Amino acid sequence: MKRLLVLLLAVGLTAAACGGNKSGGSAGSSAVTISNEQGTTWTCGFNPFNASVSFLSFGTEYEELTYVDGLKSGKTTPWLASSYAWGNGNKTLTFTIRKGVKWSDGKPFSAADVVYTFQLLKKYPALDLNANWSVLKSVTQNGDKVAFQFKTPAVPYFYYIADQTPIVAKHIWSSIKNPTTYKDDHPTGTGPYTMSSCSPQVIKYKKNPSYWQSGKPAIDTVYYPAFTSNDPANQQLASGKAQWGSQFIPNINKFYASKSPDNHYWFPPVVNVAVYINQKDPVLSNLAVRKAMAYGIDRSKVSQVGEYGYEPASNQTGIVTPTFSDWLDHGLAKQVGYNPAKAEQIVQQAGFKKSNGIYQTPDGKPLSFTMINIGGYSDWVASAQIVAENLKAIGIKVTAENLSSQTYDNDVYNGHYQLAYDGNQTAGPTPYYELRSLLYSKGSAPIGKTAGSDWERYSNPATDKLIEDYAATADKAQQHAIVTKLEQAMVDEIPVIPVTEGVDWYQYNTGSLSGWVTQGDPFARPAAYVNPDWGVMLLHLKPKA
Amino acid sequence: MRFVLRRLGFFVVTLWAAVTLNFLIPRLMPGNAAIAMMARYKGHVNPQALHAIQIAFGVNNHQSLVSAYFAYLGNIARGHFGISLTFFPDTVAHQVLQALPWTLALVGVTTVMAFVLGTLIGLVSGWRRGSVVDGALPPLFVITSAFPYFWLALLSIWLFSIKLGWFPESGGYEVTTTVGWNWTFITDAVNHSILPALTIIVTAIGGWILTMRNNMITVLTEDYVRMARAKGLKPWRIMWTYAGRNAILPNLVGFAMSLGFVVGGAILVEFVFNYPGVGWMFLQSVENQDYALMQALFLMITVTVLLAILAADVATAILDPRTRERG
Q: Does A228 touch chain B (CB under 8 A)?
C-alpha cells in the first residue's frame, strides 16, 4: 500500500519535472500562432465552399479576385485579377486575370479556372454561399478576361463575386464527383500558405515558396490550434504562446495588456447589435411604442456596463462609427438619443395611460413584452438586462428571456418573438450591406417561414426601391445619397433599435512580429476569423530583426 | 446459465428501448441543423448562405418519421452512422474514432485509478477504524469530492500551470509537437494529461472510499469474520479474503456503470482543459442538432453501460455464490 503510494508520487513528480523543462514558447521567430476560439475541433477539411471550414483555407490557400477592405469603405486591391471594370449600365463586370500565378502543385492559373469556379457554383447551389447565381446571368471567358453578366444592375454584388468567392483549380475540382461533400483535406490553391499538417487540435500551415507576390510571405509557419472554450484560448494569449488573438477577453487590460508591453488590442466596430422589433406584433406595430423605446434606451450605459466598453454605443441611423463615419448624417444620428422624458411624452401623446407603472394601449393592453436573447453570450445577457431596466423606467415592461442559441435562432428566423437582442446581420464593406439585411423586405419571409434576413419583418416599398436603386449605381455620391435616405427610414420608422456596435475581436503581440493591422493603418479586418482578410494580414506580418 | 440467458434477454429489450428513445428525443428539439450552423457563424457569413446550407444538409427533404426510424434501425444494424453535420462532410465514425482514444486514455485510466485507490483506502480505513489513515484520508477526500468539478479544475489550472508553471494549462499536447508514436509526443501528451487526471481522481475518489469503508465496517461485524479471527488467521488474510471480498460486492455494479460511462467522456473536464475527447463532442452534437453524431454517441454509451452491467452481473455471480443459487 505504502509502496504503491510512493511509486505513484514518484511517477507524478518525474512527469512534473519533465514538464517544467518544456514549458515556455517553443515557436521559432518566424512563426505565428493564432488564438481564436471557434468552439470546435478541426475536421481537417478545407473545402472553401463549406461554410463551416472556409475560414481555414480562404485567404491562405484559396484567394479572391479583388481584395475589398471592409475598414476602408471597400477600398479595392487587385489580387488574382489585375483589374476590373463595370459596363453596360452596371450589368456587366469584366475582370482581367493576372498572369504568372501558379497553383501550389505547379500548374499555371488562368481565366479558365475563374470561369470554372463560377460554373461550379451554378451547378451546385449548395456551394453558392453568397447566392451569386441569384443575380448572375452568365460568366464567360475571352482570353485573359472574364465577363460577368447580371440579370439586373448589381453593383453591391461586386463584393461577393470579387472578394468573397474563393477561386479553385479546374484541373482538380473537375474530377471531383460530389463537391458538396468533398473534404478537400490537401487543398491546392494559389495562396501564400499550404496546409502542412492537420489534427483535430491544430493545423500547421507552411509558406508557399512559389507564391506570386514575390518575397512574400515573410512568416514560415502558421499554427492554428482549435479551442473549444474561451478561457484556454485567452490564457494562450496572456502567456504569449499565441501572438494573434480574436478573442473576447473580460477585463482585458488586467488579464492581457498588463502582462507585457508588447500586448496590444484594437476592436474596430463593424456591425450593430440591436433590439429587433417584430413589426407583425399588434402592439409593436405602433410607431409610438417603437419610438418611445428608441428614446428610452441608454446606449452608452449598455456599452459601458454590458459590454465592458469594448463595443461602443450605436446610433439610430444604423451607421457603425467610426468605421463608416463618412456615411453618417450627423443630424439624423443626433435626432433619437437617450431621453426618458421624451419617451414617456410620446406614448402619452399616442393616448396611452399608465396603470401600475406600465403604460396601456387605448384598448387596455399593457406594454409588456418578452425579449429573447442567447443565454450563452454573457455580455449580451447583461446588455439585455440593462435595456429591460431602461424600458421599465419609462413604463414599458420587458422580460428578457435567455434561450439556447438554436432555439433563439429558430425563433428569430421564423419570426416567433416580440423583441430580440441580436447581431445576426452580416457586415459588409459599406453600411449598405447591413442596412439591406435589416430593411430589404424581399429577403424576409412571412411569420412561420424561415427568413434569410430582415428578421423583424419590416416592409416598406419605398425602402425596397432605395435598396434596389443603390444596386444600380457605382457612383459614390449617389450611393451616399441613398444611404442617407435609408438612415432616414431607420430614424423615422424604428424597425430595429441599434444599441451597441459589434466589433472584430483582435489582440496582437509585437514582441517578435511586426506589420500588424493598427487603428492608424487598417489595411484589413484584423480578426482571424474574417476571410480572406486574414490572408492579407499574414502577408503583412514580418519577423522582427 | 439460465441466469446469464435471462440477463441477456433483459439486455436486448433495454437496448431496443434505448435505441428508440435515442431516435425520438433529439427530434423533439426546435430548429434544424442548418439554422444551428448559421448560429455558429455569429454573422460571419452572408445570410443567404442559409439556403446553400439547407441544400447541402438536406434539411428540407421531408421524410416521414416512421420511414426515418426504420432507415435508422437498418443503418445501425449495418454499422452505418452517416455524415456528421457538425464536422461536415466527415463521417461520424471517423470523428468518434479520432476522439475516443483521448477519452479512453484519460477518463478510463482515471476511473480505474479512482476506484482502485478509493477501494484500497476504504478497505484499510475500515479495517483500522480510528487509526491515522482512517482519521485523515476519508474526510479529506469526501470534502474534495464535494467540490464543484469546474471550480477545482480552474483553481488547479491557476495554481499549477499559471502560478507555478508545472503543467500546461490546456490541450492534449503542445501545438508545435508533431503527433506520432515517438517519445517527445508521448511525454508531451502524458504531461498534458496529469492535471486533468489528478482533478478527476480527487473529485471521484471520495465516493468509493466512503462506500467501501462502510461496507467494510458492516462486514467486519459478521460471524464469519469473527470465526476467521477465532481460527487465528493472519490479519491481512482476514482483511483481503474474508472482509474485503465481501465488502467490494455492492461497489462492483457501480464501478461497472462508471466504466460504461467512460465512453461518454467527461464534458466538464474536456471543456475546462480544452481536452480533445468524446464528452465535448457530445455537447457539440446537441448544440448543432447533429442527429447522426448524437445518435452514434448515445448508442455507444448505452451499449457500453449495458455491457458493463452485464459483465458486473456475471462477475457478482462468480464472486458471490448466493446470487447464482437464487437465479
A: yes
Query: A461 and A397 in one domain?
Result: yes
* Contact status of B38 with chain A (Cβ, < 8 Å): yes
Measured between beta carbons, the chain B residues lying within 8 angstroms of A48 are none
Q: How confident is the model at residue A314 (pLDDT cuts 50, 70, 90)?
A: very high
- Say yes or no for a CB contact (<8 Å) between B272 and A271: no
Query: Is the ipTM here above 0.85?
Result: no
Specify the pairing of strand A221-225 against strand A31-35. Answer: parallel
| A423 with B289: Cβ contact below 8 A | no
Q: Which of A122, A141, A173 is the last residue of a domain?
A: A173
pLDDT of amino acid A20: 36
B18 and B102: one domain? no
Determine contact: A443 vs chain B, CB below 8 A.
Answer: yes
Nearest CA in chain B to A436: B47
Whether A401 and A300 share a structural domain: yes
Q: Give the model's pLDDT for residue A24.
A: 36
Rounded to a whole number of angstroms, the distance from the CA of B274 to the nearest CA of chain A is 6
Strand duo A244-245 + A31-35: pairing: parallel
- What's the CATH number where A324 sits? 3.10.105.10
Question: Which B-chain residues 108-127 have CB contacts (< 8 A) with chain A?
Answer: 120, 124
Q: Which residues pair with A32 in a beta bridge?
A: A222
A7 and chain B in contact, CB less than 8 A: no
* C-alpha triplet A29, A33, A34: angle, nearest 5°: 150
| Chain B 52-81, residues with CB within 8 Å of chain A CB atoms | 52-53, 55-56
Range of the structural domain that residue A489 is part of:
269-503
Residues 195-214 of B with CB under 8 A from A: 198
Q: What CATH number does the domain containing A249 carry?
A: 3.40.190.10
Q: Between chains, do B50 and A450 touch, taking CB under 8 Å as contact?
A: yes
Mutate to test the interface with B, among A6, A32, A52 (most CBs of B within 10 A): A52
- Mean pLDDT taken over chain A: 90
CB A167 within 8 A of CB A64: yes
Query: B174 and A15 in contact by Cβ < 8 A?
Result: no
Same domain, A304 and A447: yes
Q: Is residue B83 part of a domain?
A: no
CA atoms within 13 A on the CB side of B284: 30
Are A450 and B35 in contact, with CB atoms under 8 Å apart?
yes
Q: What is the pLDDT of residues A359-369, one digit of tens each?
A: 999 888 999 99
pLDDT tens digits for B3-54?
778 878 888 888 888 888 888 877 777 667 777 777 666 666 676 777 777 7
B188 at the A interface (CB within 8 A)? yes
Burial status of residue A139 (CB atoms within 10 A of its CB: 0-12, 13-18, 19 or more)? buried
Question: DSSP character for B241?
Answer: I
CA–CA separation, B274 vs A232, rounded Å? Answer: 7
Phi/psi for A64 (5° steps) reads -100, 170
A233 and A303: one domain? no
Average pLDDT over residues A462-491: 95
| Nearest CB neighbour to B88, from listed A52, A404, A425 | A52
Question: Do residues A328 and A247 both lie within one domain?
Answer: no
Same domain, B41 and B129: no
Indicate whether A448 and A435 sit together in one domain: yes
Q: Which pLDDT score is estimated for B238?
A: 86
- Note down the domain range covering B58: 2-78
